[in-house]
Amino acid sequence: MAHRTKLIAALAAVPLVLGLASCASVGSGDAGADDVIKIGVVGKGDAQWDAFEKAAGEAGIDIELVDFSDYAQPNPATTEGELDLNQFQHIVYLADYNVSAGEDLTPIGSTAIYPLGLYSTKYDDVADIKEGDTVAVPNDASNLARGLLVLQSAGLIELKSGGTIFSDLADVDEAKSKVKVTTLEASLTPTSLPDVAAAIINNDYVTDAGLSFEDAIAQDDPSDPNALPYVNIFATRADDADNETYLKLVEIFQTDPDVQAGLLEASGNTAVPLKVSVADLQDSLTKVEADTKAAKG
């Protein structure tokens, strides 16, 4: 679209089960040469995954990508041992899962940070959205807060006390806001576009909706120095955090040029690849989990 507004807010990234079989490699310790490593992803058709499977195979590691259509299932499947790893979420999302479920999944490597965009089929400019219009945002806690912060930065709503990564609908100051906000499961926000003025759409669903990343009429900034909690990660069970095969897969993802090219292609060149130390990722998770517990009371 002709007019695109780039906005700075807090970040996220940032997906039912299409097929999930029993896991051949479960539990702590390093996977053997004949084990198949099962990795839960959202958007298996994205270019980086074909390249990743090829690179892993060349390194002697047999992987199976298990595709999901929403964000609710990969973490429980990893906890239960149906998956060895997953790669679909950022630290804020993982922290909310761990606190809510009482689990201990942990990050073992970073991938990239993605901007979160506001899309519309009715307006080319965020300024054209009318008073009283309705805007849809994802309903999961971490992406709801991030979406609200994007809307605030776009001048569409005002959040009480400025907003935080824990903001929810109760924090929207309706009297001072230009639009009404409705929440939907993240995979449904694209299909809401005919019925709303605009919608916050996670990157995993943008192209499936027939949109391009350049269509965003507002978005946050993945280069914000405060963005660490929103870096996307590989996650596994705490007992497997030192699994050498899993860590080798992270290294392959971060360093293989074809994987990295596919990552950029799949994101419309919006992804910002990052290599963050595991210690820093785990420290960030610990802090966000503590903040999440405090916010939940």
What can you tell me about this protein's structure?
- With 297 residues, this protein is of the alpha/beta class.
- The protein has 2 domains: 5-10 and 115-219, Periplasmic binding protein-like II (D-Maltodextrin-Binding Protein, domain 2), CATH 3.40.190.10; 36-114 and 226-296, D-Maltodextrin-Binding Protein, domain 2 (3-Layer(aba) Sandwich), CATH 3.40.190.
- 29% of the residues lie in helices and 19% in strands.
- Helix 4 links the parallel strand 8 (134-138) and strand 9 (180-184).
- The protein is globular.
Write the layout of secondary structure elements.
Elements (H helix, E strand, L loop, with lengths): L4 E2 L29 E7 L4 H12 L3 E7 L5 H6 L5 E6 H11 L4 E5 L1 E2 L3 E3 L14 E5 L2 H13 L26 E5 L13 E4 L1 H4 L11 E2 L12 E5 L7 H12 L1 H10 L5 E2 L4 H19 L1
Parallel strand pairs: 1-11, 2-3, 2-4, 8-9, 8-10
Antiparallel strand pairs: 4-12, 5-12, 6-13, 7-10, 7-11
